[in-house]
Design a protein that fits this description.
The complex is a heterodimer of chains A (313) and B (281). By secondary structure, chain A is of the alpha/beta class. Chain A folds into two domains: 48 residues; 252 residues, 2-enoyl-CoA Hydratase, Chain A, domain 1 (Alpha-Beta Complex), CATH 3.90.226.10. Chain A contains 14 helices and eight strands. In chain A, strands 1, 2, 3, 4, 5, 6, 7 and 8 form an eight-stranded mixed beta sheet that branches. Chain B is of the alpha/beta class and 281 residues long. Chain B folds into two domains: 55 residues, no CATH class; 222 residues, 2-enoyl-CoA Hydratase, Chain A, domain 1. In chain B, strand 4 and strand 5 form a beta hairpin. Classes of the chains: A alpha/beta (313), B alpha/beta (281). Bound molecules: zinc ion. Zinc ion (ZN) binds next to loops of chain B.
């Protein structure tokens, strides 16, 4: 487990518990009572931290290395995931994964940015930063979902689109713009879930949907707090301040009617409660699809377009 | 009319790179090498007469550049920007807005006009780089939508002229929503078979290039303008590599198949007239 800076005490408790367990294995000393009392203290500390998270703490949680990633959610919520690859134009882009899967008995199409869980997979998935081929693959998959009339479920966890020479050469801006356009014309229910970082253009390319859901410790932002700090505060020292100003938390986004629903993560966050978060998210997805299936194709597209066309705070 | 306040100031502040504090009479070329008389520059459409560098234009000069001697009228954008997040960085966003309004005499970074280019009636949407870097917040998104709706009502082509650093950070996540908003507006144009010409000028980046600007049926870029998604410096820091001199220029984009033509500002009206003669409704 990776501990965030504000979880220092939790780490200490966990170490104490571990050493007590070790001690009990090596000797006959009864440690249960001791462990119980530490567990109680740990729970109090967890409640203290997680009942009052600041936006900056949420930023750190959203980027937590142990937080479940798109692949983890695909495995915990769906069955028979059958990956689909390639944009049919230039290349496969591992930063975005896609494929068929069953949500209970319902076939669906999944699309999502994948950050990876360790060094090897992070490199493989380019840290969840897609290139134009990733967005063009997304467009292909959206069109496929539309043609086959399969609900489209998008997972978003990206710091943003990849800022690279090759990405610019192949039209990163156009690829993102076109993804939104294809999503707006998709003749099937589209649901997007921000599970970690919802970074700017790279996120909205996959979040132009009928229903947008956020996990409670995820963020959705036009620019990273660090980037905002260096541009508007002319210094990298104001990322925390920027995180307060930018309205990036799920709560803020719900208030601003940018998203439709929040999945509350239990105390301790999704990285400590993957199963519970998965089952809550699964229920929300099933319900969302049921609701959207009541609409005709025309109604669906009109509503989705109007949602964005008429968006004003 | 006070020529200093009405003409010179917007232009002076229009410079993207400013190495020395400008006087009211002369200014430095965007190329960084030449010192130019403001009055000469103005007469030359804000193009450096030595290196042909196309500097930013204020909205009024741009309107004249687009419509030539033809008459045009402004279209109303019935929306007052309202600082949706009550944002404050080193300065209050509301104060930044007031400063920009004073500086440019505009409500926000976008204006709408209708008139004829060549012999074709058009609706034109212009981003003003002098107004907070042409950044896109709620007003700009709303103006774009209304522009599209006007073009549909008038059954005439729609032209956007972009110059922008991207989404307006001071509107946070609300500014990100302007991307799908303007894309949905382009979608409306498609549904009504309204021709959409996107003109990209220096610079067009971030959330503006990644939304309506790159979705034109025809995309025209001004000579030498910088167009891209990510900033050159960010890319260099990411890939730890020096980028070629012409990276993200209009010419570079043409070569990479991203746009249809690169035009000199003095020929923009002509090029538009020509394209419009094929697509006019
Ligand atoms: Zn020059």
């Amino acid at each position: 487990m990776f501990y965030l800076d504000f979880e220092e005490k939790l780490e200490k408790f966990d170490i104490e518990i571990q050493s007590l367990i070790k001690l009990s294995k090596e000797s006959d000393i009864d440690v249960d009572g001791k462990i119980n009392s530490i567990e109680k203290k740990k729970q109090i500390e967890l409640n203290r931290i997680y009942s009052n998270l600041s936006p900056w703490q949420i930023v750190k949680l959203a980027r937590h290395p142990n937080r479940p990633k798109t692949k983890n959610f695909i495995n915990s919520i769906f069955t028979q995931f059958t990956p689909l690859y390639g944009d049919r134009l230039y290349s496969e882009d591992n930063a975005i994964i896609s494929g068929f899967a069953f949500l209970d008995k319902l076939p669906v199409i999944i699309l999502g940015t994948e950050k990876g869980n360790d060094m090897n997979t992070r490199i493989k998935h380019n840290f969840g930063m897609a290139k134009p081929e990733g967005y063009r693959k997304s467009q292909r998959i959206m069109k496929l979902a539309s043609k086959l009339n399969l609900p489209l479920i998008c997972f978003i966890d990206t710091s943003g689109a990849y800022p690279g020479k090759d990405a610019e050469e192949r039209g990163q801006a156009e690829a993102i713009a076109q993804s939104m356009k294809v999503a707006l014309n998709c003749e099937t229910p589209c649901i997007s879930v921000v599970i970690g970082e919802g970074g700017s253009g790279g996120a909205i390319a996959l979040a132009t949907s009928d229903i947008v859901i956020m996990l409670s410790n995820s963020i959705y932002s036009v620019i990273s707090p660090e980037g905002c700090s260096s541009i508007l505060w002319k210094s990298s020292d104001f990322a925390e301040t920027a995180s307060n100003s930018l309205k990036i938390t799920a709560k803020d986004c719900l208030e601003l009617k940018i998203i439709d629903q929040i999945i509350e993560e239990p105390v301790g966050g999704a990285h400590r409660h993957h199963e519970k978060v998965s089952s809550d998210l699964k229920k929300a997805l099933v319900k969302s699809i049921e609701d959207l299936k009541l609409l005709t194709k025309d109604e669906l597209i009109r509503k989705r377009n109007n949602r964005y066309l008429n968006y004003i705070v | 009319m006070n020529w200093l306040t009405d003409y010179v100031k917007p232009k002076l502040s229009s410079l993207v790179t400013r190495k020395e504090p400008p006087s009211d009479l002369w200014t430095k070329c965007g190329c960084g090498e030449r010192t130019l008389y403001v009055s000469d520059l103005k007469e030359n459409l804000n193009i450096c007469s030595y290196c042909d560098y196309h500097m930013n234009m204020d909205v009024n000069s741009r309107l004249k550049n687009l419509f030539g001697d033809n008459a045009f009228e402004f279209l109303e954008v019935p929306f007052e920007n309202n600082d949706p997040l009550k944002f404050k960085d080193l300065k209050k966003y509301s104060d930044r807005m007031k400063d920009a309004q004073k500086k440019t005499d505009q409500k926000d970074a976008a204006i709408l006009a209708q008139g004829e280019i060549g012999n074709t009636k058009v609706v034109v949407f212009i981003l003003d780089f002098n107004f907070m870097g042409g950044s896109m917040g709620q007003f700009v998104g709303e103006a774009f939508k209304i522009g599209c709706q006007n073009a549909i009502d008038l059954n005439c082509p729609f032209i956007s002229v972009a110059s922008s650093g991207g989404a307006r950070m001071q509107e946070g996540i609300v500014s990100l929503m302007q991307l799908p908003k303007t894309v949905a507006a382009v979608n409306l144009l498609d549904q009504h078979k309204i021709p959409y010409i996107s003109v990209l000028t220096h610079p067009t980046t971030g959330g503006v290039s990644a939304s309506f600007a790159m979705l034109g049926d025809i995309i025209i870029a001004e000579k030498g303008s910088m167009i891209g998604f990510a900033g050159k410096r960010v890319i260099e820091e990411t890939i730890k590599e020096q980028l070629p001199e012409d990276f993200q220029t209009a010419e570079y984009l043409l070569e990479h198949g991203m746009i249809d033509m690169v035009v000199h500002r003095k020929e923009l009206n002509q090029s538009l007239s020509k394209v419009l003669s094929f697509v006019k409704k």
